[in-house]
Amino acid sequence: MHVFTTYDGTELAYHVQGDGEPLICLPGGAMRASRYLGDLGGLAAGRRLIRLDLRGTGGSAVPADESTYRVDHQVADVEALRVHLGLERVDVLGHSAAGNLAMMYAAAHPERVGRLVLVTPTTWAVGLDITPEQRLRAARLRAGSEPYDTAIEAYGRILAGTGAEADWGLTAPLFHGRWDEAARAHQAAGAEQRNEKASLAFAGEGAFDPPATRAALEGFTREVLVLAGELDGTPPPEVATELAALFPAGVLAVQPGAAHFPWLDDAPAFAARVERFLTTGA
Prior knowledge:
Blueprint: E1 2-5, E2 11-17, E3 21-26, E4 47-52, H1 71-85, E5 90-95, H2 98-108, E6 113-119, H3 132-139, H4 148-159, H5 165-170, H6 181-193, H7 196-202, H8 210-218, E7 224-229, H9 237-245, E8 250-255, H10 262-265, H11 267-280
Parallel strand pairs: 3-4, 3-5, 5-6, 6-7, 7-8
Antiparallel strand pairs: 1-2, 2-4
Helix pairs in contact: 1-2, 2-8
């Protein structure tokens, strides 16, 4: 583990794995320690992964001002990491909620980003809504066997506003391409790796200005990969298609059989697709 001091004096941790060109990796959750990203399905074989523990997660300190958990404040943390690493320009990968952080960083510092990878990103930063119907339609792709039928029923109750706390646990299989031992372990680790207070603040009031972010990204000419899971509802492939179209050089990839954590569902396919993009831009 390595440590640096960001703009407000908070000490942040990052982890380095692999060799090759650097890739800053931003974890989702929101606000889950970066450990869950692992080596991103073997991507570290050809890249030097630099996994940032966002403030208040993993090895990073809790900030003196906890309002800085809000995502727009954390853009400066990514920039401070780039400066600390001494990199003029760097490739950036954001997963899930951190897709917003990655997009906002690219909007604020376009000259500092090489290529941008958005893995199953949420789309709050650019104001693309995912409707309950779209989420449920993605879930129903699993219908016809357990534990998916139970999960779909629970998800339907949640989306209708009638779900109980226990329903969230029942939906877990929907976020993985297959509900095997590795997926169950990954899911179980999530609660202890996430800073719940920070997670609630991440997308707090004032965090996003979609018109401004979209306008900035319309001028972001570097290549962008939006990688969606065929079975994922966050985002479903149709919303991922809309997101990729916002970028002048946006590329869409939909990984077959994958859900929200595609490097767990098919590690070789995921690593090969991301590596190809980072190498060629296509």
